Amino acid sequence: MKATVHVAGPPELGGYYQTCARCGHVLIDLTGSTPMVVEGQDPVIPVWPTGERVATIGNATYVVPTGRQLGADEIECRAAS
Ligand SMILES: [Zn+2]
Q: Using CA atoms in the order 29, 15, 74, 60, what is the torsion angle rounded to 10 degrees?
């Protein structure tokens, strides 16, 4: 199984939704859920930095550092036509 490398698009809906800028794959979808917020603090929704290469394999997701070549077990996603 190869990891698919996506490119994070800008977060939408205040960070509740984020897709790949290239193929549209949903990277984050928290719509319909309620993030846990510590009482007295503003909610901080973690998002992928826009333009970051984000690899997904199964349910795991990780960042491919800038400048690193993709490994043999990583492939770029294909742009949606
Ligand atoms: Zn993609």
A: -50
